[in-house]
Specification:
By secondary structure, the protein is mostly beta strands. The protein has one domain. It has 1 helix and 12 strands, in the order E-E-E-E-E-E-H-E-E-E-E-E-E. The strands form 3 sheets. It has a 6-stranded mixed sheet with strand order 11-8-7-1-4-12, with no helix packed on it. The radius of gyration is 17 Å and the shape is globular.
């Protein structure tokens, strides 16, 4: 049934744009997602290991386009995550290559503390632009664009990724 259930009032101006972190897990490790009545994920039956990527700056963005096709009778969500990772280095290059060879699942954490899963069922695919600009102040690093194509909007988590029920967060991170 597709009956409407509520409206949306004018809201307070108490949210901010931008992303704080993303977490990636290998494809097909999530198992089945358990959801509440708002379609938020309360737990996963699998045991994924999540790898944390810290983000800084305003070049990190997330957008989602949900569209229905009247002729085909279908609805799809295209989820696009773009992140910048400063500083070219061989270890990061190797890890990013593995991301593109696979179809990882991604948890995005925004600057409001919301966490949601991109590529829940199908994982994500993407591209990487690596390089350094001409000026000393230009980016020396990577721009990673990941795209998920799903049947529904990205699902929010009902509690913090680190609090359990969603797998474990690996302590491994590339530093200087």
């Amino acid at each position: 049934m597709c009956d409407l259930t509520t409206g949306v009032a004018i809201r307070c101006k108490n949210s901010n744009g931008g992303l704080r972190k993303v977490y990636l897990a290998s494809f097909d490790t999530l198992g089945t997602a358990t959801k509440d009545s708002d379609d938020a994920i309360t737990g996963l039956s699998g045991s994924p290991s999540w790898y944390e990527y810290d983000l800084v700056g305003s070049a990190n963005t997330y957008s989602e386009t949900f569209a229905s096709d009247e002729d085909a009778g279908t609805s799809t969500s295209e989820q696009t995550l773009t992140i910048q990772l400063p500083k070219l280095d061989k270890r990061t290059s190797k890890e990013l290559k593995l991301i593109l060879w696979g179809r990882p699942h991604v948890v995005v954490e925004d600057n409001n503390g919301n966490q949601f899963v991109v590529g829940l069922e199908n994982g994500v695919t993407g591209s990487i632009d690596a390089g350094t600009g001409g000026a000393m102040s230009d980016l020396n690093g990577y721009t990673l664009t990941l795209t998920g194509r799903e049947k529904e909007f990205a699902s929010f988590l009902t509690s913090d990724l680190s609090s359990g029920g969603y797998g474990s967060i690996s302590g491994s991170q590339i530093t200087d």
